[in-house]
Amino acid sequence: MQTSLSCKVLRFANHNLLNDHFYIPIRARVNGGIIEPLEQIGLPEGQEVLVTILVPTNREAFQRSEGQWTGTLDAEAMICDIHAKRDRDRLSSESP
Fold first, then answer.
1. What is the pLDDT of residue 20?
2. What CA–CA distances, in Å, run from 1 to 6, 10, 12, 39?
3. Is the Cα torsion angle 21, 27, 30, 31 positive or negative in sign?
4. Which residues on adjacent β-strands are paired with residue 23?
5. What does the DSSP assignment read for 9-64?
6. What is the Cα–Cα distance from 21 to 47, expressed in whole angstroms?
7. CA distance 47 to 76
8. CA-CA distances (angstroms) from residue 46 to 24, 28, 30, 43, 77?
9. Can you name the residues that pair with 55 across neighbouring β-strands?
10. pLDDT in tens, 68-82
11. What predicted TM-score, i.e. pTM, was given to this entire model?
12. Distance (Å, rounded) from C-alpha 25 to C-alpha 12?
């Protein structure tokens, strides 16, 4: 999979460098609306950081929803409609 984002990731020890920023993956727990690290992070007091939150998915919920859209959409007709609209748009943009 290619992305338009160009980034360089360097890995060493438990630290990673992403576009000149260190990132340290850690586990944490939310307690009373506050994110509490479950391990030492080794940053000085008051250090401002950017937090990206990854929430584990509930695989069972995804599995239960499998097939729920079956019969609610005619995919072939939708694809034909998309192609027809593209053709109409292309033709109208080519007209003087």
1. 63
2. 13, 19, 24, 33
3. negative
4. 16
5. EEEETTEEEETTEEE----EEEETTEEEESS-----TT--------PPP-HHHHHH
6. 14
7. 54
8. 17, 18, 19, 8, 57
9. none
10. 777 787 888 888 989
11. 0.39
12. 12
Would you state the structure tokens that stand for residue 29, as one six-digit string? Answer: 């727990």
Report the distance separating Cα 61 and Cα 7, nearest Å. Answer: 33
Q: In what order do the strands lie in the sheet with 21-23?
A: 9-12, 15-18, 21-23
Tell me the HSE value of 68 on the side-chain side, using a 13 A CA sphere.
Answer: 6
Residue 24 near residue 14 (C-beta atoms within 8 A): yes
Q: Cα 68 to chain center, whole Å?
A: 23
Please state, for a pLDDT cut of 70, what percent of the chain lies above it. Answer: 75
Looking at residue 76, what DSSP letter applies? Answer: H
CA separation, residue 51 to residues 14, 25, 26, 36, 72 (Å): 17, 10, 11, 12, 39
